[in-house]
Design brief:
The chain has 5 helices and no strands. The chain has 106 residues and is mainly alpha-helical. The protein starts with 5 loop residues before the first helix and ends in a 25-residue tail after the last helix.
Amino acid sequence: MLYTSTAFHDENPKTYAAFYAALREAANWINANKQEAAETFIRQQGSKLSPKLVLDIINDPENDFTIIPQNTFVYAAELHKLGVLKSEAGSWKDYFFPEAHGENGS
């Protein structure tokens, strides 16, 4: 998950839209090209990890490359109970920008 301030989002709508579109494209590409994604990660990071290990990480069902918010509301509820968040969220849409609201998030 990535985040930014409301000020940046509101003051830079074209930049935010371009970044959000690129993030969606990257997630879609990773899911469609897992082997190449593993190789790209190793090359870009100069990693010594084996391609098989990186591919296993990408294929692990616990990892999901998506821009759709998933299972975030449980954390928001806990953070409110702990006093970290001042306002209780009624929905995951309360703390994601409108660009994500069309998704089937949680």
